[in-house]
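Q: A reviewer asked whether we had any structural model of the full assembly, not just the individual parts. We don't, so I'm hoping you can provide one. Inputs are below.
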Amino acid sequence: MGKAIGIGAAPLRKEDFRFLTGRGNYVSDLKRPDMSYGVFVRSPHAHALLTGIDASAALAAPGVLAVLTGADVAADDLGGLPCGWGITDKSGEPMKEPAFPLLAQGKVRFVGDMVAFVVAETLEQAHDAAELVAVGYDALPAVVGVLDAVRDGAPLLFDDVPGNLCADWELGDRAATDLAFTRAAHVARLSLVNNRLIGNPMEPRAAVAEYNAGTGHYTLYSTSQFPHVVRFLMSALVLKVPEQKVRVVAPDVGGGFGVKQFHYGEEAVVTWAARKVGQPIKWVADRSEGFVSDRHGRDHVTEAELALDETGRFLGFRVATLANMGGYLSTFGPNIPTNLYAPLLSGVYVMPQIYCNVKVVFTNTVPVDAYRGAGRPEATFLVERMVDVAAAEMGIDRVEIRRRNMIPREAFPYQTPVLLQYDSGDPGGCLDRALVAADVAGFGARKAASARSGKFRGLGFSTYIEACGLAPSRFAGRLGARGGLYESATVRVHPTGQVTVLIGTHNHGQGHETTFAQIVSEKLGVAFEDVDIVFGDTDKVQFGMGTYGSRSLVVGGAALSKASDKVVAKGRKIAAHLLEAGEADIAFEAGVFKVAGTDRGRTFAEIAGAAYVPHNYPLEILEPGLEEQAYYDPVNFTYPGGAHICEVEVDPETGTVTIVGYTGVDDVGTVINPMIVEGQLHGGIVQGIGQALCESAVYDESSGQLLSGSFMDYCMPRADTSPHMSVATHSTLCTHTPMGVKGCGEVGTIGSPAAVINAVVDALSHLGVTHVDMPATSNRIWRVIQNAALPRAAE
Amino acid sequence: MKAFDYHRPAAVGEAAALLATLADSRPLAGGMTLLPTLKLRLAEAPALIDLSRLSEARGIKQDGDALAVGAMTCHADVAASPLAKALIPGLAQLAGSIGDPAVRNRGTIGGSLANNDPSADYPAAVLALGAVIVTSRREIPADDYFVGLFETALEPDEIILAVRLPVPRAAGYAKLRNPASRFPTVGVFVADTSAGVRVAANGFALGVARLPEFESALANHFAPDAVAGIHVDAEAFSSDIHAEAAYKAHLVGVMARRAVSTALELRGPP
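A: Here is a predicted structure for the entire assembly that you could use as a starting point for your response.
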């Protein structure tokens, strides 16, 4: 007999048995009767007119079932891929929103843009035939960088989008911010690039689709973080088929990081083609294909100014950013560098005035969208670098300038000048603990030891806050969201008292099957192993917005908590009847409904049994069965935060940066499973280190070819270059979520890049270095050292 | 990957005959470059001639004052070989630093030399040690073997059977890895041999090459400081997205010094 394992415990993850024993069930594992295979023909050009497609040789090749092109898409009147957010230009005009066709219509706009889909009986036949599709291209000049894209005379991606400008967006009080600068004793300035990243989840994207001609039902199995949203967007807006006739299943998914939270053209094309071909179709991206079709992340160019008074207190922050959207608007694309970026520019500081202008720019590159952190890492990197630059220029200690400007714990809830109201937090407390854990006091001695072996040692701080748990719907709606952002959960109690949860979030590595079971175990007093979590199937789960933006526990967990409370409330009514007591006298503790003050009671399982075998049951006032559902839409974002401290050693001979110490003290609110939280922090920090030290998507400026299109050239962070990380939580409770949770999925990725780069700059500061762009590769650091005005030996 | 015929001959003559008669056929050693290229459809081969059964191409043994390594010996076996570690520890160390464990257990010294990737590790060692490439037809001194970028003195149907590496007085290797591919950006092998000090570096635009200035400096004094300050011309390197030519040229000096240090450490006290 199992026992309840509740909030705060660290049981091993339920899902790991199947993963660690090779029993996971991924999309590419699926086999359907008569399944055929699809291969996409993708553009080798960054920008070109399509002059014609001749599929005759491909159609005549062995085993080929279909070759579909943009003409077929047009003939069937399929919709383009919808954008889920509509932002508004500062002129008041809506953003420019050109169509994003499923298969190219007349023009291709990035290397990897989809031109045709070939279906054959075997995968090799499909590959062979794809090579036979003759596509005529008339190459056009391409533009890949934001600075080039907004220049006069730049090649235009869309005839009706002047200057390649999707929107010229702003937030904050410009006049008040300008006024603050007139009162400044010092203005610190910083230009930086936030490097373009490619998420590269371990499992490439894949789709299997089938069509039942008898019922008219489509089934799509997809590597998706949000199957219900895919079903809605694909049925209503793209394929234009009845939503109730579409089932989307996202089974085990091998990592997402945001890359799988968009509705992709491949999903819709495979589903559409399954009906046309009359056979199930499987498409699995290979890694090379993923590099040029998975949505990319980040890619900002920013100029910023911070106004300070003579004591180093912040007066105003002025930011101008160019954000790369790539060739088309992806599902959340324009939301990321605007609504998820500018409102974070206050950081953990009292920043009286902020003005941020973001130019959202089309280029001949893969569409850019959310990637773990999504806007918030970009904001945090900018703020925390800016603070260091200001501290150096004013001769103020970097910890001291942070303390001087930090929002004190007692000032929460704190309203920033850029929309957000932080409900809770203790940035100073996180920093205090991190300073001790990182032994900052002993840094001087360690730096001297490094210098004796010819190395430069540096220390970097990042005190950050982020907004997560997307929702709230009303707020998001004001910012341009075209959908709701709530979450739903059903708690289905079986006659035995065992429980199935149906939830609209999606578990692809986060450990939800464990964390959510702990919540139910805590709430209902049932054994941990008596709770199963079902997700990722629109035919099973009522509805859901999926998993992204650190929302699953915050929003989904809250829905689950509410649904569990409803179960208890109904159980109390049943117990009152069975125990012949007033409902108000029934107490529920440790899985037993008791008449308060007596030893008379019924176990949770007995109540469930009575609900399903209602021989003695208050049928006149209560329906049989024990299943409750809740939808939850929060009133505010949640605001995790923390303090990260990174220590690096730089080899001046080669420029190589080695992280020799990493400390994170994070406020994630209530911790349900500390082991899982620690894993999320580790993974997030390593991803941030990847951005800081090695990852970079590089395009050739003239041809628009992706030069970092494989793991030979795109450098992922690896175990042997990842440091030992000391992580701890220092939590204040969220004031508005049911359990006080704040979310932890992205904090590591948000806090870490600034900590790493601030440490690198610190290590080089004796050379006069004030900024280093990411990634801080050995070549870049060597070059920075070479270019430094007065190179001196390490002290 | 497109379909291909697969042959696994047991005798060198048979393998050479298949290569000579089957048009566009390719010899398959460890397949560390060839197989990914085929999988990505960047190359096609109607037939692959697997060399893994050629007994002449196996084993590590002492051959007079040289170490003879069979062409089909994988990197992990060279790294772990007591004989290699005793005779040329710098070579064993280099073998243990190639790629990752999967590569080290599949990739072979013969395959690496036949491919002559400018970023491969082995060519620097083979050239610096003044080794001899033993093939199905002849013996080729290393100085004549490396022709250029992915180019060697091998004829199309010529098969490397072994590499005979003279045992040096001291030898060492140092490199800076490309963090993505883990191939060396620049690697330098130094060897104090009976034929004098020889130094070779990989990472040049046209592949592995000797460094005469470093050799003469070290011939005078085999110590790290001896090579400090030698200018390396960036013209011989190409810039890529990971490293600019000037940086690679700079790294030659750094790695040469580190290689000499390693060589002295591995040699032990005099």
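A: Points you may want to mention in the reply: Chain B has two domains: 5-52, 56-267. The CA atoms of residues 178 and 242 of chain B lie 7 Å apart.
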